[in-house]
Queue: 3 jobs
Job 1
Amino acid sequence: MPSGKNEWWRDAVIYQVYPRSFSDSNADGIGDIPGILSRVDYLANLGVDAIWISPFYDSPLLDGGYDVSDFRLVDPRLGVVADVEDLIRAAHAKGVKLFMDIVPNHTSSAHAWFHEVLNSEPGSPAWDRYVIKEGKGAGHEFPPTNWQSVFHGDAWSPLVLANGVKTKYWYLHIFDSSQPDLNWENSEVRAEFEDILKFWFDLGIDGFRIDVAHGLIKDQTFPDIDYGAAREKGLLGAPILSPFWDQDGVHEVYRSWRKIADSYQPPKVFCGETSAPSPERLALYQRPDELHTSFNFHYLRAGFDAIRLKDSVDSTLLNHRKVGAPATWVLSNHDIVRHATRLAPGQSDQPTVMPTPDNADRGVARARAATLFTLGLPGSTYLYQGEELGLPEVLDLPGEARQDPVWFRTGGKEIGRDGCRVPLPWSGDLPSYGFGSGENSWLPQPHSWEHLSVQAQESGDTTLNFYRAALAKRREELATGDGELQWRMGEFTTPNDSILAYRRPHPVSPLTCLMNTTGEMWSAPHSFGTQVVVASGPEVAIVDSGDGEHLVLGPETSVWVRG
Ligand code: NOJ
Ligand code: CA
């Protein structure tokens, strides 16, 4: 059922900026807010509706800025609050909305609140803002539970006061030990985050992506986890059913946040980074008085597999419609292997498993096909910076350059997420390829990136021009909110159900998306017509084989046709 509602976020294309790696205005090798400002025209011309910027708050950067030491300050390496105001103005002048990232599950250990803990007596009010418990064992030498950090190792660390006194207490950190978890049972914590939301909303930010939105509330009985039984893994590898994920109490937090968002005109918008154990549980976060949207990580685990993609689309749409919310779709972000590499034949579908450098060309072709398939679906779509250039995951970063806590906490056994965070190539034939005015970039760029820069892709059949065309057509042709989708596979038979076809109905200009996931050419039946709107690759032809013209689709190619 089409929603009939025309709120902009129901079918928006939102571009994720990872600020340290996007554009560097002062040649120190670190992308910054003025750098983003200088690229607003590029993003508006690309055709996105909104920009979401990963955290740029004051931070020791032990987890790429997801370790926040002050939620009302900008990291001085990235700019100042006034730069954010300038950016909001510039984006709005181009009709582009701006989302920030809020990180409510934890603070940095450098946050003033955690300093208060370390400088106060056990049991002081400051302690109640974090999840702190007595250790087990006669000498309290064991952690309170067996919970494991998402970044590996124990999720608890001993609490040692600023004066060096070792206590019998441990603090919880579901992520790095520099990211103590906040205690959302504490009313001061709730009030503080509501105030932070208002601070940035008042400045003109249009919405927030919510980090680990399914975290926050912990099972207050603090049970151990049966890790042997907990097989299903979430996006970053932690079991999806845990006493610290998706607890019912978290919905109360978002009901209260929604009231704040709705008190603005126009209303502000939320997108949760929500990993739920099922599409049904995920949809609960999008009830009308909670979050507007959430990421849909089931979909990006479906690989380049027609059956799994279709199943994911069906269950996503079904469950979102039950609560009247639009679906969201995403193929890449700053935590997972870039889809131009991940979707290559022979790679793991699991977005955090490190790939091998095989079949790179087919990876890009498949990524473009998957992108066009995704952009046609009802709902909103998230793009990750650099995917419009077909950037691959960088697999050979030197150990000394790596910065992801996953790399450090596993002693280098897991290389972590730096490979999708390498600064963008904009122009020129030498590093930093226009990322900054000099050669510095905080992670080294591969030499092959000269051919992948924005400048190098300005003309011809490039991935950048494909994205521009697809986004322009989406805006012109598919401005139907989060409306209907009708599968059309009943009109043909293919081996292994490897071709997908769906129609987006429209009274005047219906559109059909076809995706060929096979390595062979495929001739579409006449019923699909021959009016190509946009194609993901060059191998699309109109052929007359004696019985009239019909569409022939190349291997691993998607196309939108009229009708
Ligand atoms: C999810 C973020 O996307 C990731 O980058 C971060 O490390 C964790 N949350 C912890 O904040
Ligand atoms: Ca800089």
Job 2
Amino acid sequence: MFAFNYFTPTRVVFGRDTEQKVAELIKTFGGTKVLIHYGGGSVVRSGLLKRVTDTLDAAGIAYVTLGGAVPNPRLSLVYQGIELCKKEGVDFLLAVGGGSAIDSAKAIGYGVANGGDVWDFYDYKRKAAGCLPLGVILTLSATGSEMSDSSVITKEEGQIKRGYSSDFGRAKFAIMNPELTMTLPDYQTACGCADIMMHTMERYFTNGGNMEITDAIAEGLLRTVMTNAEILVKDPKNYDARAEVMWAGSLSHNGLTGCGSDGGDWMTHKLEHELGGLYDVAHGAGLTAIWGSWARYVYKNCLPRFRRFAVNVMGVEPTGSDEAVALKGIEAMEAFYRRINMPTNLRELGVKPTEDELVTMAHKCAVGVGGAKGSARLLKEADMLAIYRASL
Ligand code: NZQ
Ligand code: ZN
């Protein structure tokens, strides 16, 4: 077991109609002038944005709005948001939406609080010394950004998608009403479930120490999300299934399922970030398209964990060699992805990279991780290229 530092300062307000508490929560955390940041318009169409602004109006809280955060949120909008906040004297950020709106808001918060070029943080050139306080109304269970320390931004120039992690970026509060996710397209619901599971799987497949309690939480979380993801394929309005998935999303990326480990593997995410940067694919689908190839490439180097995963999560009979059991677990996970209509390779994802593009992605990925990364197996640029090739 490794020592760990578990910090989850976000107040979670969970359940039906909880968005009505937004003004009260902003006041609790000292907000007097708010930037409401959202995505491409789903919160306008659903009426959620109007309900939020009505609540703020009634409470006498001033605000400005900025929509337009797209999936794989762009740096140019972040710059726009920073300028708007400075001009308007904004002292509190409210992200209403999924991971993209939340991550974009975090980046705006870093930009306002620190000055200079905010991309420096994503380019690993310096560390943030603060962030504007942030609240979240979550509409998509997926990234866990509502409780995580991360923000992932895409710089248009060079199509570079990078994450920055800092405790300053953790939300002060997260309002989570599972009903708000019922307007999601089925594809986004499934992408979200895949992403949620991957945040735990990245922490689970390690060669570092682990705690039995952490493994038990991780395995329970994975089984719960699988069960409820399949319920949502058939019954998208099922409140209880939405609630299970929503809470799992937060717990999967707030650090809980990594306590005592070596920090995790994270290479599936890093390989996906290149796909997101280059082809603008949905994050969860990019992850499932790459995971099988990654798993087959690394499982022999992390056999006890893959065997345990097969038996405890995927329900594989523990008979036969460890390798055979581990492989059955990988196959079972891919079968699950197909049942929730997620891709298991790049063709099914709908992208057809050329050999040159694969080489470019592997190179950018290697640069992005500082040369080599991975706990299940340490991957260098040549390994990354091999995995991309195997995922075609
Ligand atoms: O933009 P709008 O119109 O709101 O539509 C969005 C978008 O098209 C739509 N949507 C969201 N809630 C909805 C809804 N449509 C109908 N009803 C609702 N209730 O769904 C689409 C996807 O939204 P987005 O926010 O992009 O998805 P997600 O939450 O999956 O976020 C993806 C981004 O987060 C990053 C990903 O890489 C990607 O850029 N990640 C962030 C992490 C973090 N901050 O901790 C960790 C993750 O691993 C991930 O990398
Ligand atoms: Zn993710």
Job 3
Amino acid sequence: MSKPDFAAMSRLSADIDLMADGKATGFVRVPHSVHRSAYGWIPIPIVRIKNGDGPNVLMQAGNHGDEWEGQIGLGNLIRSLEPKDIKGRLVILPSANFPAAMAGQRTSPIDDGNLNRSFPGNPEGTITEQIAHFIEHALLPGFDYSFDFHSGGSSLAYIPSALAARLGDEARMAKVLGMLKAFGAPVSYLAAAPQGGGRTFTSASFRQGVVSMGTELGGGGLVTPHSLKVAEDGMRRVLAHIGLLQGPVPAPTPTRLTEIGGDDYYVYASDAGLFEPLVDLGDEVAKDQPAARIHFHDTPWREPVTLTFKRDGLVLCKRIPTRCERGDCLFHLATDVVS
Ligand code: CA
């Protein structure tokens, strides 16, 4: 039996040719018939810049709508790059879950869909599932490299970081490590290997044979000059490293190579209440060190609960909002990769 034509199943289509030479800007159209617009479509911005032969590269941000460095950085890249500046093909999808980005939310206001938990998608599913299906089956095939620019969003903040999944294939892993070093975020980390059935863009890229890396650039719903500089300088250095961007790039910056492992790297809220952090991003902590207190503002005479770290590590990520519920992630750690 021949493989079904997944791309042809999609209701979505780009209104520019993604393979042609030159620079073109347009939209991926998502048909969406609603009260105010009977035959309307949702316009997801997309850009193609191509100059002859070279690597095929997809850069995406706004997978989570409230993560901004990638969206701003890719906008700046779109306006500054011309075909003569590159060799190969660069396709940019700066606000992949466009309804979420326009609402300033992690998830889509249309269907509550989390795009990065929706792959491989469904051509007949919700709007978010249709976007995931289009990205995995119509967009990703044929690319050599993909980049997914995340940050902590509204509820988390990270030390600006780049990340990649651990791969069994040593040659591919070496390629990815070279990309992390070229990107040059203050911290890089290796995460769990992509799963065949995984629901993230990383897993989608893995299934489609595309070498992929991502970022966690900052967060808290904010952009800072530092986090945006990490994003933009990193984008240019890594595009030059893989042979797409021609000409000078920002000077290299060192990265600290770390990894995140199992559940013991995380601290979760045990109770609903007010989260008092006892450490900050960048701190080096030890096993059993107090991480946070949770205060009970409904019964303030009750002693707060103290939560501790389950292992040593670097505080890579922390929760931003003070009010927490049981099960909210408060911190996660990273540890140096010992080679
Ligand atoms: Ca994210």
